[in-house]
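Let us work through a complete example step by step.
Step 1: write down the sequence.
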Amino acid sequence: MGVRMMGAKQSALLGFASAVRWQMQLHTFNAKPLAERGYLIAFGLGVLGLMLGRAGEIGEGLGFVAFWSAAALAFLSLTYEAYLRVLPHVQSVWGRWLMLPIAATVGSAAYGHSSHILNAATGQDPDLFPRSMAFMTSFAAIPLLGIVAMVLLIVGMLFSMLAGFLQVVSNDRARSNDAWIWIARVFSACTAMVFVSPVLDEKSSIGQSIEGMAGWVAQGFDMHVDRTCGPGEWDRIKRINETLVLRVSRVEGRLLFRRVACPLGPDQQIQTR
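Step 2: predict the structure and record it as tokens.
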């Protein structure tokens, strides 16, 4: 009887100690910065995704969802942490002065890249579409910003790997326990590169969408209806000189740009709908 009572007391004490330990760990977790909490949850989801991926078809589907949820959460945590670290420098006086040449350089490069996008979309001289070039500049900046982000991610990943290794081999136990943060940052940088890489590929869905949009922008912003040179219902033209015009037609739902002869006579009247 006494042995049973002692066993029950020990079990109760062990349960109480376990509850206290979990409460302390939860308190420690809540005390961490938001980005570090995101890293920890992402790491747990990533491990869960890898484990579920070996548990049959249903587990494979759940594992896929869990792993990519971890990747998205890690990416958001890294973005949030980078924002908090960069914001004070951007708001400083020297940061504002530094942003001026950076913005001017990126804007000029984006404007130049928009001409390549319009040329690829229309097969014509992009100088024929000045309004469209101005409009497409913001979209042309997306791959340029992707290049900058990729370079920063690679540098940050290498720095995080070095910092994590130094903390792992450190004799300081507190620093060794925090090494997982740097490992999580490496994982986050890798997932961020996965999300950013489609922006750099012109043949990706993002690049093809921007190029496809450029053709519609060109026919809408820089071309007009002229039934003399473009008799089709959806034809639009852009006059190049007195004898040539650029005509765009819809062929099987796609835009076809081509130069056609359409001399401009002295008494010609332009017919519109």
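Step 3: interpret the result. The chain is about 75% helix and 5% strand.
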